[in-house]
Each structure stands twice: as structure tokens, then as C-alpha cells.
Amino acid sequence: MPLLEVTDVNKVFPGVRALDGVTFALQPGEVHALVGENGAGKSTLIKLLTGVYQPDGGELRYRDEPARFATPMDAQRAGISTIYQEVNLVPLMSVAHNLFLGREPRSAFGLVDEKRMVREASEILVRYGVTTDVRRPLGTMALGAQQMVALARAVMVDAKVVIMDEPTSSLEPREVETLFGVIRDLHARGIGIVYVSHRLDELYQICDAVTILRDGKVVHTGRLAELERIRLVSLMLGRDMSAVRREGFTGFAGDHTGAADAPPVLKVTGLSSRHRLHDISFAVRPGEVVGLGGLLGAGRSETIKAIGGAYPVDAGEIEVGGKTLKNPTPVRAVQAGIAVQPEDRKAEGIVAGLSIRENIALAVLPRMARLGLVSDRKIDKIVDTYMTRLRIKASGPDQRVGDLSGGNQQKVLLARLLATQPRVLLLDEPTRGIDVGAKAEVQALIDELAADGLGVVLVSSDAEELVEGADRVVVLRDGAVVGELTGTNVTTEALLETIAAAAVSSEEPHDN
Amino acid sequence: MTTEALVRRPTFDRAWLPKYGVYAAIVLLVLYNVAFTPNFLAWSNLRIQLVQVAPIVIVALGMALVIGTEGIDLSVGSVMALAAALIPLYLGYGVIAAILVSLIAGVVVGLINGVLVARVGLQPIVATLALFVGGRGLALVISHGQLKDVRNDDLIFLGSGDFLGLPMLVWIAALLVLVVAFVVRRTVFGRRLLAVGGNRAATELAGVPVKRVLIGVYVLCAVLASIAGLLAVARIQSSDASSVGLLIELSAITAVVVGGTPLTGGKVRVLGTVAGALLMQLVIATMIKHNLQPSTTEMVQAVIILVAVYAARERKSR
């Protein structure tokens, strides 16, 4: 008898079918992995289970009775606790207060019994590996410890179901072990756990069952131990192993004739950033498209941002055209010839309120000006050039970028990057959220730019796009390079195998 | 699925209110006053109104730039007081020296504000609150809390003189309006400022020195405030650190908001800001002429601010 189950639920948002006939069942004492790429519907499903959203159709049953959680509070009272990636607690209040927030032990006069609260909090948290003074403000503790407090709090409320959304993303290896200890303890007590993570090792280490979502549908559900890693990855990415060999799937033309002996235009050596990036090295030659492969959270976006000076780096060297980029900042990176197209177009790419003209000219204003005075003639010239070249469809250069379609917004962003006349182009999901026509155009443009001698680094969650667009693919996992595909080896199959194999080999590190 | 089709907006939509509402309101008020207020069009009356609004316009220009970066500057009144307090101290070295010193004070305050916002990462309202409190305190210390008479012919000319039939104050304010409009429209700095206000993360990633732009904006705002401060001394021919520029930050913010500059940044309406200051001045003048209580005047001002903010919100949430 399942503890919590949904049957055939749908959830529709304007223009998107986020969940499409999803059925999911959690048994008592089961650790159930919920996996899928971005936009697969994991978050939507979690929100349905926790009362944030209401299903548009289908049934939700909890402890064998039809259930309806009107608010997250309802779900919590019924015994469904959720731990989110970001800690949802009060950073300025003490650890003990956070732990007991809303359920503080009372003294005889109805006041908060501080002494008892501190004592009990210390006792509880020791089991979670937190041994600091519980009177400290929560915000002064490491993120991992905060996560433990959130977990302790979630479990304390007499939970029957605990949902963990990427609980290990900010934990250190030692803390991960503590977390797993706690999970095993919950498991033994018959509590059901929904575990969302992209780290395959963790899934295979701790989970009993798995449900894989893709494009709002369940594509697989069953015992995790019976599912091969490579199958899991291919189901997640939606690449049927046998159907992979088709060609001409994307707008990419094929290989680039980048001179194999030319000195690299970008060379990254030993790039490291605390917790996130570990000793990443690779090189890009002019005219070459190098893909960065890996699952979500593998460190692809962080690598790109670090090279662009927008992510803190502890160690490592970045060379552009043979010159070392010292103390990288976005300003210095752009000057050195690095152009970064960030993953989140709206938040970090376009300036929605400004015109196409201002957006394209943004990075090159000094070149368009004399003595600080802008020459609109010069700007119009480059804006015109790029609007034509990238086929940006708009009523004119004065149109607000926020009013354009996703594809055209992306083209405006690319135009801004190209206007800086970069030597290296770093593209993070260049075709995400844009329609098919624009997608093919952007892909063709990447080909064209490489042919012009630019070094391109391409990040894409679309395995086909990566394999067909890139000449080489560097595969990352947990912030480290775990493999590289070259020559005829650049296939979707090999990519999936490397991602999956990487997970296998690192599970038994003493084997190497 | 997104189509490649353009998303066309109707050319006449609700956006007209924040854009042109302030001008329409001015026209209405002027018409009303011409009809019902005796001697409204008398030159002496118009002259008084213009002289009174000039410092607000000057301070509001700087405020508009800061608000364009999604910031706010509460310290402008204190900067005026500081500039005013320094004038009598350095007038012995000549009027140019005194003016320079008070402008430098503006630069220093602006640098402090800018560094606190851009480098330390404080919220603008908190960063400038520090000098809002501390700046006037310092001004009182400098002036020993005393009102000082300032009798310098050059300063008096700046504050009360005429040029081509118009008060010098009005000429100076008009010149500064042109300068700021030019900076916003024609300079690299002005365009960067708007981009920072529109999307700071994106602007930073585009390789724009965002911190330098922000510091520059706060310096410019404080310098404009110090100009307003020294002009205030020139006009009243005395320096009183406890009263110069008192509450002007509120008038300035009101002028900016009523003029149609959104508090969310990314847009600066220079002429709108001037019109906003004029409108508020006209409202107050009209109320006084018709013998309404100051409290009524304040309530009417409050309603105008609410209408302006509401109009801007509607435009934003299309």
C-alpha cells in the first residue's frame, strides 16, 4: 500500500503542459529517486505533492485516502516535509530558534523556554553532525550545516514523507555521509523519501526505486538496482540508443576544418573553484567548436562563467591567444577577447527595457564614441550590420528587446557578443527556449563563426546539438573533467556512455 | 510555441499617463490659475515660482540619474547643508575658491555613497541614509550651529541677479538641465547608466565597468546637490546648516517619480523631472493663493505621488 501516490495527474500552465498523465507512488520506508533534466516536470510534481499547486486532473492519495492539500501548510501538517535546495529558514535567528520555529517549548508563563529549547536543539542536532553552539545565528553557519538544520526541522515535525530537492548540492563529502546516515535512519523508521538529485552515484548509493520524467511524462519507473546507468542517462536525456545514429538532426553542417596544429586561442589549465570546479583543463583552437558535456550541475555553466571572469576562481590559469588573463573580471575578459552568452537570457543576458540598438551597442560603447560622446551613426552602422547578418526580426532597431520573441532576443544577445569582435565565444545553452526555426539559424551561425576562425565553447543539454555542433566534447562531472570525445568518437552514444561510465568509475576510486 | 512574429504594441496605450500625464496636469493647473487666481500671470509671481523651484530641479536631476540605476540618494539635503556651511569658511580666499571647496565636498560625499553602494554592496537607501544623518551633523559642526551672513557681491549676483531679464538661478538650473539631458542621451556614461538600471547582472557580464558607473552617478548627484546648496546660500545671503536643503530629498524624489521616471531603474526622464518639479511647485502655489491649509496641500501632494506611482506600475505590468 503506497504511502503517497498520484495517479494520472496533469498540470497545465499557459502554453506548457508541465505534467502529462503522471503516475507516481511512494512506498513507506522507500527512498525514491525522482530524476529528469531541466523542465522535465520534477519541480511541478513536487509542488503538487506539497500543496503549492493543485493538479488539473487525476488523483492524489495519501495514506490510502484521497487527499487535497490546499496550501503547503496543509501538506506539512499532514506529515509531508520538504527540503529545498535553498534553505528556507531565518538566517538572523539562532539555530535553536530556527529548529523550533512555530513550535517553541513554552515555560509555565507561556513564554518561550529558552533553556529547554537550547538543550533539546543541541541534542537533536548532534545526530545530524552539527555540534556548534545552537545560540549562534543560523546565517553564520556553513551552508551544509544550515541544510542539516533544515533537514532536522523537517523530520522533527513528525513527518511521514520527506521530499529532498538536491539536498547535497551545497554539502561537503563528509556532510553527504552524515546526510545518508540520516536517510538510512528515516528509511528504517518507515518514512518515505523522495530524493531529487543529478548525481548518479548518490542515487545508486541511497535509492531503492526510481521514476524518470521527461517533458512532463513518466518514461520509466521501477527498482533502481535493475536499471543500468547508461539506460538511466539515455532515458533522462531522451536519446534512444539505437536511434541515435541519424544524421543532420540539427542545423549544424558537420566538422570544422580548424587547423589541428594551430596554437590554441583559449587554454584553460587547472581551473578550480571551491566545491564547484576541480582542476579543469582544456584548450580550444581557432575554428574549433569544443562542447562541454555532462548532466545538470556538472559544472558546465560555472566553467564558462569562470572563464568569463564572472565566477570566483581559487586556482588555475586562463590564456587567450597565448596571453594569460590575470585576475579575471568580466571587464578584463571582454577586453581579452572572451564573449560569454549566459544560460539565463532574461536575468543575465538582455536588458529587456532597452532597445535592440542599445543592447547590441552595450559592450562596445567606448569604441562607438569619442571623448565619451556617443556617435549614433557608428552605432547604427554596426546595429544594422548585425541585424541583417543574424536576421533579427523586429519593427526596427528601436524596438524594446523585452517585446521580441525568445529567438530574436537570443540573436540580439549574440549580436552584442559579436560586436566586441571576440576571439573566443562561450555559449551556454544557446538554443534553449527558442523556436525551431531560430534554433537552426543559431546553430548555422555557430558553424559560420567557427569557420571564420573563432574558438567556440558550446554547452548544451541537448545531446544531439552537442555532438553535431562540436568537434570535440569535454565531459564534466561534479566539476571535474572525466573524459573527452574526439574525432569519430563524437557520438551521442559515446557521450552517454562517458557520462554514465564516469559515474561508475568514480564510485570505486580505489580501482584506478 | 513562440512564433517569429513581432509582438506589436498599440501605439496609443496606457503608457501615455506616466509619459505625458505630468505635462497635461501642468497645462490644466495653469489654465485654472489663469482663470481663477488673481495676478497669476504677473511677472513678479512667475519669477518667485521659478526661483523657488530652481534648487529642487537641480537636486532632482541628480536624483533622477540615481533612480535610473535603481538606486536612491537620501543624502542630497545634507550635501546642500555641507556645501552651504563651507561657503562662509572659504569666502576669504575668494568666491571661486569657496565654490570649489563646496563642490569638492559634494564629490567626496558622492564617492562615499558610490563606494558604499557599488563596492561594499549596501542597499542605496541604507548607504545614503548614513550621510543623510552624518552629513548634516558635520555641517552643523563646521558652522558651529550658527547662522552666518554671507555678503559677497558675486554670490549675491548668482542668487538674486538677473541676466537677460531672467534670474541667474533659473539660467543655471536650465543650463544644468541641458547638461544632464546631454549626459543621458549622448554619452557613454549615460547609456551605461541606463543599462545598469535595466539589468545590472547582464551589464556586468557584457564587460561594462558597472561599479565605476555607479560611483560616477552618485558623485554627479552629490555635486548637483552641492551646487543647489551654494545657490541657496547665495539667494538667502546667509548660511544656515540646520535649515538649508531640509526635506529636499523628498521633493526631489517626488519630482522624479511624478515626472515619469520609474523607481525600478533603466529609464531617466530629464524633462519629465523638470515638469514634475514645476507641477509640485504649481500645486503648492495654487493652494497657498487660495488660502488652503498647508495640511491640505500636503494631502494633495500625496495623492499626486500615488497617482504617478500607480500609473508607472500599470505600464510596467502590461
Provide the low-confidence segments of chain B as ranges: 1-12
Radius of gyration of chain A: 25 Å
- Distance N terminus to C terminus of chain A? 44 Å
Radius of gyration of chain B in whole Å, from Cα?
20 Å
**Biggest sheet record of chain B:** 2 strands, antiparallel
Q: How many helical elements of chain A?
A: 17
Can you list the strand order of the major beta sheet of chain A? Answer: 6-7-8-3-9-10
Percent in strands of chain B: under 5%
Oligomer: heterodimer
Overall shape of chain A: it is globular
| Average pLDDT for all residues of chain A | 85
Overview of the molecule:
- The complex is a heterodimer of chains A (512) and B (318).
- In chain A, the strands form 5 sheets. In chain A, strands 6-7-8-3-9-10 form a 6-stranded mixed beta sheet, with helices on both faces. In chain A, strands 16-19-20-13-21-22 form a 6-stranded mixed beta sheet, sandwiched between helices. In chain A, strands 2-1-4-5 form a 4-stranded antiparallel beta sheet, covered by helices on one side.
- The radius of gyration of chain A is 25 Å and the shape is globular.
- Chain A has 17 helices and 22 strands.
- By secondary structure, chain A is of the alpha/beta class.
- By secondary structure, chain B is mainly alpha-helical.
- Chain B has a domain at 53-246.
- A two-stranded antiparallel ribbon of chain B has the order 1-4. A two-stranded antiparallel sheet of chain B has the order 2-3.
- In chain B, strand 2 and strand 3 form a beta hairpin.
- The interface between A and B is large, with 45 and 30 residues.
